[in-house]
Amino acid sequence: MTTLAWFHCFAGIAGDMALGSLVDAGADVAEVRALLDRLPMSGWSMEVTPVMRGGIGATKVEVVVAETPVVRTYAHIIGLIDEARLPERVSNRTHATFAALAEAEGHLHRRPAAQVHFHEVGGVDAIIDVVGTCAALEVLGVDQVRSSPVAQGTGMVRSAHGMLPVPAPAVVELLRGAPTYGRDIPYELTTPTGAALLAATASGWGPMPPMRVSAAGFGAGSRDLEGLPNLVQVVLGEAMADEPFRPEPGQPVTLLEVNVDDATGETLAHAVATLLGAGAHDAWITPILMKKGRPAHKVSALSDPALADQVARVLMDETGSLGVRGETIQRWPAARVEDQVEVAGVPVRVKVGAGRVKVEHDDAARAARRTGLPLREVVSRAEEAWRRRISEGPDGEAG
Predict the structure, then answer these.
(1) Is there a contact between 97 and 130 (Cβ–Cβ < 8 Å)?
(2) Does residue 221 share a domain with residue 161?
(3) Are residues 115 and 216 in the same domain?
(4) Are 147 and 98 within one domain?
């Protein structure tokens, strides 16, 4: 059996609303609190109260914090999560949520994700909202998360960086590729925390999937909205066997291809490198047989639709092809961040996703040549350097 949780974001979503909806749907508050108590943080409490929004009964979760606002780095927060020794799925979902936030903030502020300083989303209340939501999903035994299109408000919102437009830039970045729409309501309906939870955990978007419904709940926002219940709904159920779960739609991408039978291996390798330099998400070569049994190669590139013309031109120029074919497909990229560590004094880039660290091969090969170490030893040391940095924090102190 596959247990699904479908979030209906008709009035947007925030971290406390997501947690409230799962508690309203039956997540045991004591079990959620027990997992939250593993976090090495003090000075907070969680109040759970029944409320009404637009005539609908719901649950309001409020985290009461004694501390003054503290600016935490991504590394500090990951250190807190790792120290808590949460169940695997809770840890993975929480890691992925903060990785998505770090990647979005890093993109907006033009800095590596690992160096991002969280302001609002680094407070104790936001951490409790994220970890509490992931804990509640685990308490309910949720295997897969899906979401409706996500509603957005309008106007401006105050942040640590000053006034920002609604939807906030981080929300727009986090929901890139996801279905979303605006409502003429002068408030922030979807917060960065809510958007990050969906970006990290939702494996599909659209209407409620075929399921045998077992429970449902509503999580309440803080204010009453005119003409719209300020709620997020969650529906839980078992995926129907005759209608298997399908993660759709995903991020649209353009697949471009050419067949060539008169190019050398050096030319093809250069073409792949140039395609990646032109902005392609990925590029690769496949051996094929053309008419009359001629051996040839298919050169493929995966591109953002906005860069398709540019990548197609490079593909034709570098291969000498007289044309290019293409189609629009979808992909479902996992949240990940990029950072840099050192191995024997040589910088090596790493990509970090939920529960996984992957070392950039070219950097590892360069470090192996410079140091004389075996390639696999460089990879092992780079992975260990990343884990050590996360556990110790950016200042070398244990988090």
Answers:
(1) yes
(2) yes
(3) yes
(4) yes
What is the per-residue DSSP string for 27-81?
Answer: --HHHHHHHHTTSS--SEEEEEEEEEETTEEEEEEEEEE-SPP--EEHHHHHHHH
The DSSP string of 335-399 is PEEEEEEEETTEEEEEEEETTEEEE-HHHHHHHHHHH---HHHHHHHHHHHHHHHHHH-TTSS--
**Last residue of one domain, picked from the residues 280, 305, 331:** 331
Residue 350 structure tokens: 């790493």
Whether residue 96 contacts residue 113, with contact meaning beta carbons closer than 8 Å, is answered with no
Domain count, the chain: 3
pLDDT in tens, 146-189: 999 999 999 887 765 568 888 888 899 999 989 999 999 999 99
pLDDT recorded at residue 163: 82
Does residue 90 sit in the same domain as residue 180? yes
CA distance 399 to 378: 26
Q: Final residue of a domain: which of 305, 331, 357? A: 331
Question: What length is written for the chain?
Answer: 399
38 phi, psi to nearest 5 deg: -75, -20
Tell me the two tokens of residue 335.
Answer: 């949240």
